[in-house]
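Intended use. Records such as the Small ribosomal subunit biogenesis GTPase RsgA entry shown here are meant for training and evaluating sequence-to-structure methods. They are not intended to support clinical decisions.
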Amino acid sequence: MNLNTLGLSPAAQAFTEDETLNDFLLARVTAVHRDRYTLQDAERTYSAEITGNLRYSVQDSSELPAVGDWVKAIPSGEDSAVIIEVLERSSLLKRKAVNKFGESQSIAANLDQAFIVQAVGQDFNLNRLERYLAICNAAPITAILIISKVDLISKEELQSYIDKVKARHLDLEVLGFSNFDPESIAEIAQKMQAHKSYCILGSSGVGKSTLINALRANDQLKTQSISNSNQKGRHTTTHRELFILANGAIVIDTPGMREIGITDDASALEATFESIQEIARNCKFSDCQHEGEKGCAIQAAIDSGELSEELYASYHKLKLEQKHYSTSLKEKRAKERAQGKLFKAGKAHRKNHKY
């Protein structure tokens, strides 16, 4: 294996060309297990941890190493290492951290594209799809939608699913997938190029592990079928992990995500709902809030049927969520600054009042 096989990022490529860094280890994070990391370089696999300085100097948990990151490390044994720096990322897929005020959580780094998997039936949800598209646009990376378990429906029903997606996101590429259809597997594999990095996203039990098994042409990932009664499954991927396919493409599998909270990137929402932005440009007032104002192009488009009311409702909900996250982030940073000033003031007081 060589470093190109692992999909060298621009920052990693620059690292290899810097002779002053020859004493350090350049490796890619292939798995994250809580406080331990699995690294891969051109020669071997390492079990690694991060330095205390790195752990406590970050302002947000998304700055810690994620699957797909290229890192600068120091070997600490034959198969162990210590990570001292995360190299600059070409992209970062992240979401709002669950139950953590004003924080985000990394999903994967240095990606080229995401495959969003939704199964036919109860899992298929356009609003949820738009959440995935928003975090992909924030990364920023492109996305392809995979509709899985299409062997359970007719071709006409599959086309109906595709039509629903295209009605809201005309330019989004949509592919069908069945583990029993080699042609559908081959079509997805053809979308993946050697040395490029791809992420598989989706809820629990939608077929992400089944898809990767099919692409790898073996059963290295354990899968569980979803219940016929409620069409729900338990996720079988418990951590994020990187694989290299036979064609050289790099794939990162992720656990099923129940919550996909978006962060503070307003431009990502604009990119996700581009059709709404185009209509909004025709509003009479540039600061129109689309809440009944005179000359509102959005309301006129909804009334005429040009704009789906469901699509605008999805956008409006995500917009409010994005604003709430931005407010939380500002409050968090203001609190941290106040605590920093208090600490410095206390330190100065102790210094000036020594006995």
